[in-house]
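Page 37, top half.
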Amino acid sequence: MENEQLENNEQDVKRPTFLLVLCILTFVNTGFTVLGGLMGMLSGKPSAEEIKDSKVQMAQSIDQLEKLNMDYWVDVLKRLDAMTDAMYANFVAYNGVAVVVALIGAFAAFLMFQAKKVGFHVYIVYSFLYVIQAYLFISPEIMPAFVIILNFIIAGVFVLLYSRNLSWMNK
């Protein structure tokens, strides 16, 4: 009898719209990551010709930026090119880790959607994994600082936004 009353009270308390919006954003983001990672693993590493074409385009962009004396962006593009090489060297593993991390994020959002505080803690773990996952395959000295800072800011903002709904979540 007591359990039925608790369940009825939980259903009476309306889910915050803000939490719904955050969960939808998380599901969309993690869904695209999962689909992209699975499609990448199924289609396999790009061919040598495709990689060569990509490198040519990157070199042309770097040349244009050098002509404009935009040294910072030249360095960023060179680092991004090195990151791409490292990603191609471990293509399946890189995509596999991205898929697993995204699934953790989707699971965390699902738990929070169901009013479970443990989902928030899982989301913090997901956010940390999201920021560091590239370091499994890419040397830290290659990563441009703005990529690291941007990932931390995005992860931190979402953790903060989800924390605004903790009072609604149960256990």
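Page 37, bottom half:
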Amino acid sequence: MFGLGSLNDQAILERIKDGDESVLVLVYKKHYGMVKKLILKNSGDITVVDDIMQDTIIAVWKNANKPTFLLQSKLSTYILAIAKNLWLKELKKRSKFKSVDENSPKNTLIDTQKENLDSDIIAEMVNEMDETCKKLLSYFYFDGYSTRLIADKLNYANADTVKSKKYQCFKKLQASVLARYNKVDLI
């Protein structure tokens, strides 16, 4: 086989389900340019394209092998959506690490340190919660997962169940933080 041109999307997915890893190399090569363009147009650089593309291919592999998986768009559209979500997640991570300008006023440095301290406190408190709340809150607030994806990951009936449980967990977290710290400490 010299390329994907002769295979339709369903045939490619069938080969993935059959464990044919060689088709992944071809899918990677065919869609690399599309993902590269997406990342470069959205504040990225060439150094991250390979990582995002590899993670995208792994996600396609895992999802295609789920018994309930049903491709409801073109494979290229699906790949682009996964890459976009992974890139947005990466951008969120990068925005958490704000650089401090040495020429900036001293209070900006203090504000940045305070913000990092507050984030560290919340992360620490989340880690002390029961396993269900820890996973749910981490998936939602730190990883940016949708409620539908969280429902799948945690085996909940639907996104509404996740919303309800997230609210309960958030209230527990809020009570724990307020019991341990004064409001003044966190403002």
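Margin note: The CA atoms of residues 17 and 66 lie 9 Å apart.
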